Amino acid sequence: GRPGGESPEADGHIVFRAPFNLNPKQGALSVWMRPVDWEDGDGKFHFIFATASEKPETRERLLLYKYHNTPQITVYADGAQGKDPKAIQKPLDDWNAKTWRHYVMCWAADELVLYVDGELLGRTPRTAPVAEDWEYFSIGRDGFTPEGGNCAFDELKIFDKPLTAEQVATL
User: Fold this and answer.
1) Which residues pair with 151 in a beta bridge?
2) What is the mean pLDDT of the chain?
3) 35-65 burial, b if ≥16 CB within 10 A, otherwise e?
4) d(Cα 154, Cα 8) in Å, to the nearest integer?
5) What is the C-alpha end-to-end distance of the chain, expressed in Å?
6) How far apart (Å, rounded) are the C-alpha atoms in residues 140 and 116?
7) Pairing relation of β-strands 61-66 and 46-53?
8) 8 Å CB contact between 140 and 14
9) Are 40 and 116 in contact (CB under 8 A)?
10) What is the mean pLDDT of residues 76-92?
11) Which of 52, 54, 122, 151 has its CA 20 to 30 A from that of 93?
């Protein structure tokens, strides 16, 4: 549940407080994940990581998910009030319950980067200002869409700076 607050619906995801755990200006997420009860082509979004500012005037989001009806892994970020959205999308195979994959998402005010299984899948420049009021982040659900399935996670690590390719290879 949410420390110091109401407990959210706990159906296959975990919610953490962002302050002191997640740097909104820059950072990296490293996690091993495999689907449990979903497959590619089921028509649903499947979230690995999600955070957003909760104030209407900022409303910035940072997401890592499988895009519905496609085999694409997606990193998505937008600035205040949805301005200047940026995304990295690449198709992946083996979206099944037997396949563990290592995901590393890096963010900064000027760039988004995505690695899967140590391979650089994409990077995109960013120009939007970064919100600093992220209160919570979730693993396994985005908090906006009720759909999705359960995932198994291992070795979740959050860094306060983007990682280099050498650091990702070491992980």
Assistant:
1) 35
2) 82
3) beebebebebbbbbbbbbbeeeebbbbbbbb
4) 22
5) 29
6) 17
7) antiparallel
8) yes
9) no
10) 81
11) 52
